């Protein structure tokens, strides 16, 4: 069976197009890498203090941390995308669709490689004995660029970024079933759309990556990102309308995936801010500056908000932090931690806006 995407082509295209980051000399680069690594080591203990997830934080502290450039992130992101899509997706019935998908995915990831600060990849295998699965990737040129734009204190900003990403590592360590559950939810949606018959591939929609620059794309970035899924599913269509054309059962799966992402991102935001000025003296200034340029920091955000055409869900996605705060106000972090026990404890889509309903269903039932 052929893959639905030419993954190798995506890696080559993304690596060839990824732009270099801001200038930094060798001494500055060594200091940046050392500071990011130190922040990544320190962050899990702070997450444990806030959440009470001590064992999961200890596991996360033993995880693999990679400080990477943009091409290396794009390569890793391709692997994450492949893992989330699943290897059992049906072969597309349209000739050339896999190559089209590889071209467009590579182009999109090259563009996104200039924006991602960090990414916890729960699908990476353990790097050695005693090391948990998953890995944290910190994109050094992007961290440096945003740090300079915001005129942020370097150590404070590095720890702030690592707190968010290491909270994700703690989440997946606390819920070892979560990665497969999320992958299954997304794969169910993709399987319903890939290889639909009766539609012809239009390879003219492939971006001419040999002449189109990442900073000056030949097509609007949003359209390219949406067509990544389009080339996987129905070339020539409008993937931004995916939710509207999904059958009810897949639409429900997509809504469940958005609810999970709302929880994960909202929880990470709440934790990173709860650590507060004691560990990050300039946290309020960092948060205020960052909210002005709220970035798509994770591949999961990109998949749901951009590739799946989920801009209409952004309000719900931001409500994740409000959900977490609502639960914590009612039952504290010990009560919230029931969410990591089993899939049935994940918030339902309607509960993201109604944390009291989740508390009544999950915590009140115990």
TrEMBL record:
Q: Which domain of life is it from?
A: Bacteria
Q: Which SUPFAM superfamilies match?
A: Metalloproteases ('zincins'), catalytic domain
Coiled-coil segments on the chain, per record:
none
What InterPro entries does its record include? CHP03883_F420-assoc (IPR022454), Zinicin_2 (IPR018766), Zinicin_2_N (IPR042271)
An example Gene Ontology molecular-function term: hydrolase activity
Keywords for this entry?
Answer: Hydrolase
Q: Which NCBIfam families match?
A: DUF2342_F420, putative hydrolase
Q: Which PANTHER family match?
A: HYDROLASE, PTHR39420
Protein name per UniProt: Putative hydrolase/coenzyme F420 biosynthesis associated uncharacterized protein
């Amino acid at each position: 069976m052929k893959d639905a995407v030419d993954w190798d082509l995506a890696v080559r295209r993304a690596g060839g197009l990824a732009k270099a980051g801001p200038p930094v000399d060798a001494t500055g680069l060594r200091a940046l890498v050392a500071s990011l690594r130190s922040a990544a080591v320190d962050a899990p203990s702070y997450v444990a203090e806030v959440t009470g997830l001590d064992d999961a934080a200890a596991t996360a502290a033993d995880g693999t941390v990679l400080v990477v450039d943009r091409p290396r992130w794009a390569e890793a992101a391709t692997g994450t995308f492949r893992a989330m899509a699943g290897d059992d997706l049906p072969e597309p019935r349209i000739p050339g669709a896999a190559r089209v998908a590889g071209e467009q995915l590579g182009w999109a990831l090259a563009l996104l490689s200039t924006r991602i600060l960090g990414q916890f990849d729960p699908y990476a295998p353990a790097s050695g004995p005693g090391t948990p699965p998953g890995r944290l990737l910190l994109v050094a040129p992007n961290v440096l660029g945003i740090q300079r734009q915001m005129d942020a204190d370097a150590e404070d900003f590095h720890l702030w970024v690592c707190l968010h990403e290491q909270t994700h590592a703690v989440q997946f360590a606390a819920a070892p079933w979560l990665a497969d559950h999320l992958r299954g939810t997304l794969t169910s949606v993709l399987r319903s759309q890939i290889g639909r018959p009766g539609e012809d591939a239009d390879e003219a929609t492939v971006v001419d990556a040999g002449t189109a620059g990442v900073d000056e794309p030949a097509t609007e970035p949003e359209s390219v990102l949406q067509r990544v899924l389009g080339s996987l599913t129905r070339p020539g269509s409008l993937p931004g309308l995916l939710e509207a054309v999904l059958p009810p059962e897949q639409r429900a799966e997509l809504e469940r995936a958005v609810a999970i992402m709302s929880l994960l991102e909202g929880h990470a935001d709440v934790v990173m801010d709860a650590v507060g000025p004691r560990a990050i003296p300039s946290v309020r200034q960092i948060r205020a500056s960052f909210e002005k340029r709220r970035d798509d920091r994770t591949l999961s955000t990109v998949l749901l908000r951009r590739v799946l055409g989920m801009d209409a869900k952004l309000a719900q996605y931001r409500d994740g932090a409000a959900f977490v705060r609502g639960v914590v106000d009612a039952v504290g972090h010990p009560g919230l931690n029931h969410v990591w026990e089993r899939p049935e404890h994940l918030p339902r889509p309607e509960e993201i806006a109604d944390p009291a309903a989740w508390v009544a269903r999950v915590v009140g039932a115990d």
